[in-house]
Write a structure and sequence with these properties.
Layout (H helix, E strand, L loop, with lengths): L4 E5 L5 E5 L6 E2 L6 E4 L6 E2 L2 E6 L1
Antiparallel strand pairs: 1-2, 1-6, 3-4, 4-5
Length: 54
């Protein structure tokens, strides 16, 4: 199954793109808080998903 990209908002207000099937921890580029953790398939996203990107 193909993955998707999401625009995710961190609690610091920063928004960044994240792949839905991330295979490593994704940290916020601004405050370094973890935004996603790998889970053997779809990643666990900790921020707020603003929208799904094409």
């Amino acid at each position: 199954m193909a993955g998707k990209f999401f625009l995710v908002k961190c609690k610091c207000g920063n928004e960044q793109k994240i792949f839905s099937h991330a295979t490593s921890v994704v940290n916020c580029a601004k405050c370094s808080e973890p935004l996603a953790h790998p889970a053997g398939g779809e990643a666990i996203i900790h921020g707020d998903i603003v929208k799904e990107l094409g």
